Every structure is written in structure tokens, then in C-alpha cells.
Amino acid sequence: MRTAPTILHLDMDAFFASAEQASKPSLRGKAVVVGGLGPRGVVATASYEARVFGVNSAMPMAQARRLAPNAAYLVPRFGFYRSISEQVMGLLRALSPLVEPLSLDEAFVDLEAGGAACDAESARLTGERLRADIRAVTGLTGSVGLAASKMIAKIASERAKPDGLVLIEPGTERALLGPLSVRTLPGVGPATGDHLRRAGITTVDEIAEAGEDELVRLVGKAHGHGLYAMALAHDERPVVAERETKSVSVEDTYDVDIHDRVRVGLEVQRLADRCVRRLRAAGLSGRTIVLKVRRYDFSTLTRSETLRGPTDDPGVVREAAARLLDSVDTTGGVRLLGVGVSGLADYTQEDLFAQAAGEQADFLEEEHAEEERGEEHAAPVERRWPAGHDVHHAGFGHGWVQGSGLGRVTVRFERPEDSGPGRVRTFRTDDPELEPVEPLPVVARGPDVSTGELPALWARGSGDLSVEPLPVVGRGPGDLPAEPMPTPLES
What we know:
α4 (78-95) packs antiparallel against α5 (120-138). A 5-stranded mixed sheet has the order 5-6-1-7-8. A 5-stranded antiparallel sheet has the order 16-15-14-13-17, with no helix packed on it. The protein has 14 helices and 17 strands. The termini are far apart. 38% of the residues are buried. The protein is α+β, with helices and mostly antiparallel strands. Helix content is 33%, strand content 23%.
């Protein structure tokens, strides 16, 4: 293990919700919940103001609404979150060539590899400057953990939340871990945690006291050895700059169970096409086609078929997915469907299947025909306006959807740079002057991190903070609004 705390773990604070608060002045300091808003939707992220009421990630949205009825409930804008994530990852890569992203809002950085830190003092200074840079470039906050290993750095960032920095000095890890729950350790989920609890083991100290042989007996050889090592704070995992993509997949959860076998088949075909588009966008192909089906009783089935070579042909993937569906009984109803491709490669075997000849042309023709049929059917269908998404009105300018229903859509007109809440107006959903648009940047102008140029705030070794940090958005629980959020039809 290293002798200096030069592994940095960054975790953006309530990322999706904080991004929404930063882009919507009327939501700053208020309870915000982001996730699926349908009957079976779940919470993706809750702001700290919403967490005061007990709302947490992965909670059913219906339960969240009961706990925090006056919160703002928004549909995710993943493209917007991804653009902010790219800015943050650019800042991290300016520190070191060894950056290991774990998700859009979380990453490890090896500061020693980039010469950004060599001891506790330089590591702390680097972490503080990074937090200031993130605030200046994105308007958001992130929590930083610094330690000599990845496991301890991640635990440190959790203790730093929200908007803080915690450094764990090498040699103090055992004292930190000892009283913590076994669930703190990576790989200890609810099942393993319950199994250990039944054996009288609830803390990390008790794992160490039980001994390696007892852990192997309880949870198996591989898991037992790993758990014992982590309980002793032994974690030699390096920061890996490139994480290999193992699969590409798409899935949809349906608000109402699908019973019609024909529609199930059509949904699988549509998912297969979406999966291929994502596969091609990544410049990949794959050998194994996977079908996922979650039935009415929550039982989940997966079926797979491995081809003779990698492909990115939509016809081949659709045919394989259809064959896999034939082996699944869906008579009771289907609540979720997914199609994936694994066994990835960066090339295709174009002559893999003779029957695939001409499939691409057929696919494009059918897709075009589907678009034409969709246009025919779309005329009488009400336009959809997802809550939280950006719109522009010819007369009022830029805004975002507060809610819609009964042929009306309510919009709050405001921009990220506004100092206070914007005005609210209600329109018909088919208003020709209202149209969806791309999100505006939270910070209007900032450094181009894609060029590798460090932001003005970052002057390594100089200590010169030449740019005034922007106001922090969504730092903590704060005061809740005295009045509930306007209803979708409020004008």
C-alpha cells in the first residue's frame, strides 16, 4: 500500500438533482426528485432538501411522492448530465493520466501518476483546488476523499458529503474501518450482510476478529479471502484509466403489463434496433445476443445466443432476439424487456450469415416506413412534454416544463443565469409557438477542458485563485419552500 494519500475519489453531490437546481433558479434550495414519473418509476437522485423527508435513490416514485408531496418531480435529462460530466472528467484528466470513471458523477484519480501530489499536504491542496474548479466550471459541488487506497478514498468521500474534503492519513485506516458496518466494504450487499449478521458479525472489526478461515467457511473461498483483506485495510487495486466495455444494452419498463404477444415481439424488435444503433455509435460489434424479460410476477428471465463471430447487423440482432423470445412464456404479462449484445469487438464479420445479405437495406426501408406510419398516427396524438425538459416559446423565450396534462402544459420561463424565479405560463400542448430545445449551459462561459488547458482557478503550485468561484448550488438541506411548487395547470 502507498505511504501517501494520493488516491483521490470524487463523487458529485446529488448530481442529477443538483444539475437541475443549477439550471433552474426557482428550484435552488428546494426539494427536487429526478427519476421515472410513471406508476412504476423509481428515484434516480434526490436533492439534499428532499432527503430530509426520507426520499432516497432507487425508492419507488410513488413512495417518494407520499414522503415529499411538494417536491419538484422531474424526468432525467441524460444528455445534459453527460455534458457536465465531460467537463468534470476533463478537469480530472488535467490532473493525471490515470483517471478511472465509475459513472457520470464518480471517478478515481491517481494523483501521484500525474505529479499532482506526493504527500498529504500537496494532496489536500490539489483536492481543494479541484473542488473550486468544479464549482467554477460547472456551478456544482463535489465531495473529495483522499487516501492511500481506492477503498478508503471512497469511504472518505462519503464522509465528506456534501461539498467537503476528507483525507485519511496512511496508518489510520484500521481505526477508521473498525466500528463501521460490514456493508461499508465493497462487495457486501444485503444478502452477504444478512448472512454475516446471522453469524454474529456486524462490524468490520468483527470480520477481522473472526479470522480468514471462518470467513471462507461462511461466504466461500474467493469472497472470504477478499473480505478479510479489506477488513485489514489491504487494498492494492490500481487506478485503471480505461475500463473495457463488456456489453451494450437497452431496456424499457412499461407502466402497464404487456399481454399481447405480437406487441411483445414488436417491442423486442424495436429494442434490438436501438441496441444496434448504440453499438454502432461506440464503433463496436458483438457475438452474444441477450434477451431480458421481467414478467408480471417480477421473475426475471435472461436468454442468450452466441453467434459464430461479431456483428453489428440490425437484421442479425433482431432475428436472434426473436428466436430467444420464442423460448420465453409471456402469457401472464411482461413489465420489462431488454436486448443486449456482449462479447464485444471493434470489428465485424460481414459474411457471418448469408441470410443477412440485404438486411441493412430492408432495415432502412422498414424504418422509413415506420416513420411514415408514425407520422400518419401522430397527427391526433397529444404532444408529450416531459417535466423538467427545456422548451422555447416564441413570445416568452427559454423555459422548462413544470408539468402537463389535460391538453395543457405549464412552463416556467427562466435561464440558469437568472437571479430569481421566472414567471409561469400555461399553454395548449399543441401551441405552435412552443417547441422543445437543448438545455442551456449552467455556466455560460468557462475553460475548454477538452484541449487540456487548465482553468484559470488552477495554477498548480502558485496558490493564485484568479477567478471568483460561482455561488454554490444545493449545498445542503437548507430551508424548504414555505409554499408548495405550482401545480401543472397553474398560470
